[in-house]
Amino acid sequence: MKRVYLTMIYITLGLNVLLPWIFCKIKGFQYIYWPVDEKYLDIAVVFLILILLITIVIVELSRYGGSKIEFSELDNSFLLGNGVTLLFWFSIILNLINIVVTGGFRGIIVGAANSTIIAYLQFFLDSRLLYFAVLLKAYKRQKIEEICIYSFAYVAVSFMYSSRSGIFWMVFYNMVLLYALKLSKRFVQKIMLLMVVPIMLAPVLYMLATASRSDANLSIEGMINQIVGRVSYLEISAIEIEQAKTGDYVADVFNDGMENQAKQIVNMLVPGSVFQDDVQPNQYWRAIFAGWTKEAAKEHYTSMYFVLPVYLYVKYGLMVAVILYATIIYSLFRITCKMKNNAFALFVASYFFYSLCQFFD
Questions:
Q1: Could you give the percent of the chain with pLDDT greater than 90?
Q2: 8-45: buried (b, 16+ CB within 10 Å) or exposed (e) per residue?
Q3: Which of 217, 137, 224 is nearest to 177 (CA)?
Q4: pTM, 2 dp
């Protein structure tokens, strides 16, 4: 399990922090979301590197979960038979029906699927979880063709939703399993070679998904800046840190975020709506930091998010943020190490670490 966490932390450090920072230093920083003093970009880099390095040290020094996981250690109950495979394909069909019924991305954004039986079923048939399950099963069987088929189906449905994250999660899960499981060297080399294709396709799919969401025509340079800005944690973190320092953010909307999140979780858990339907807290980001009204933030979807360490920094200050974040990640690490079902622990570790980092996304 230690290898899983270290892999995810290094991916976060490289993909979301260092590479965007190097890009900005070479090409020059151009803000995408909201004007921000460039010095806060450097402060964000230092803060995120510091907190991720502390997390790496804590996990490295732990005596738990150090070796690669063998398939004999996994709970094989769901890896046997066709149950999980049928559920995966059922979730794919359910998503296709939902796309047709709601109109895809635009329909979902305006709440066309809210309180429907399809939305309720999707909560229990999460395609990302089921994709991970069938992927793990394919890795156990070391069937490369199955890995390709499941991955294509998952990315295709994500793309139909105009989602730009599907291909990321596909590559991410494969990388986690490659480093977490004890596999033959030849099999690992083949998968690593295959991963070159989706990595090369990722920018193209991002551009196509973005074009399907918006009528704006961006140049190649503009799209590159969009991709770097979307992957990067730096600009958003810099905006949040600067406004926390100056007190310019809208504190009332910021402080309502946790209550809003809790109410929407309850609404997701039961048919109908216990509380008034609302957008997810990440959609209020522009109302907090970019001068939008709450009504405008509700009407116009913007895939913005808090990075958890920076959220904690804005709310509690530097020292408390470092201590809390390190405690949260180490606690998650220890909990997953203690789980008897290593297959489920793998999913919890890989999914929740990244979701925790992107707190409100």
A1: 26
A2: bbebbbeebbbebbebbeeeebeeebbebeeebbbbbb
A3: 137
A4: 0.79
